[in-house]
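step 4 of 6: structure.
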Amino acid sequence: MLNTVQIKEKINQAGERLTPQRIEILKYLRSVTCHPTAEIIYTEVKKNIPTISLGTIYRNLIYLVTKGYIIQFQNNDNITCYDGNPKDHIHFICQKCNKVHDIFETPTIDKAKFDKLGIINKVEYKVFGVCTECNQ
Ligand SMILES: [Zn+2]
Ligand SMILES: [Zn+2]
């Protein structure tokens, strides 16, 4: 997981223009493990950048996903969630409370088998179930 200093270094290496808003979104996403929605990110980032709009949040999230800084996926209710950890990992999604838990294990995919079909842009690892809290 990258801290703020590393985020800045990574940005400079890539020679990309990362606005203070993008850095703020990244900082927030890398400080939590709750896989928030854009609305939650908006509420949190607004505490530090009061003038930011929800539209700006959405645009910056798309940018960060496209550049591979963060991951975007749909939860059990098909609501888009964001993850500050772009490394391959599995999401265990509770079908009752919709909480998303990280499992740091990488199922291997034989990418060669997909060569005939086309180019892989994204691989998602999702496991659905009922968490222990909901199962009590
Ligand atoms: Zn649950
Ligand atoms: Zn995750």
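step 5 of 6: annotate
 - The radius of gyration is 16 Å.
 - The pocket of zinc ion (ligand 2) is lined by residues 35, 83, 85, 89, 91, 102 (CB under 6 Å).
step 6 of 6: archive
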